[in-house]
Amino acid sequence: MPVLGGRAQELVYRPVLAARRGELEALGHLDDAHTPMLSPILELSKIDRSVLDSLARLPPRLLPAVDIGDLPDTTASALARWGVPLVPVIGLTDGERRLVAHGVAARAHAHRAVVRLRLRQDRAGPDATTTAVERIGRHARLGPEQCDLVVDCGDVCCPADVRLVEPRVRRVLDWARRHAWRSVSVVAGGMPPALSRLPIDEPVRVDRWDWLLWRRLSDLGVAFGDYGVAPADPAPPAIDRHLTVTYTGDGAWWVHRWSRRRGQGDQRVADLCRTLVSGPHWPATGASFSWGDQEISRRARRGAGAGSAANWMAWSTSHHLAHVLDSLARPARATPSR
Asked: Full-prediction pTM beyond 0.70?
């Protein structure tokens, strides 16, 4: 895959995932053949023993990038002391102390980092952005050739969002040509922030506008990234009493939200899973497509219990990762006209 500077780039998929039980369980069951092609960014909202144990159980060949977000500056150093192998994620506005810690973490393991340019927050011009990159180099002691650039578009949930974001991404990528990045990825979220308005007890199609945006940028040869089956900016937490499995297909998700009935949890999940496996978007290879598909197939046969919201997220994420990697490995299809 040609990239901005004319270099050859290996197939890579860069999902941004919350470091929660469901997403981490999906990564833990990743197929060995897929591991080299996956470079996830994990967003940490807390640091505790359960998170550290989950990170330690990830496949040995999977080296995630970790974004500590709004956690204290000392978090990066703490992760390095605890021996958690990771690639640090650097923001353009990170303070000097955090940049130094990021540099230490990068040199402790992979000798590289991810620079995350957020399209909506980092709105400075190209010269100011170059100054920010030079500042990262001074304090983290990392040059662009040691960093993967991620252009994060946030949520792209409709045609208007795609039309608005695409020219802005192209301007950023024009700037990116000034630097010898290890790789360049474009990441966007396509899932609506809330699903509460969707119908229940039937599969509902939700277009993957993040995938469409990336295909419109295919002439630039940048790598693909998304937010899995979650929105980039989720709505405030709310009680959702529905059983939900989001199933990824070509160009769309099929959201299955089933109503609960008292004392019938196993039966309702089995009904949801039977509907899913009999649908046209179920893969030709069936349950062998991913670990998540195996779990869905077991519930369709009533071979296991209903599970929990974390389990449903794990199955959905597992299938999504396998589907995206399968799509990226297929021969390129015609790109939609602009």
From this structure: yes
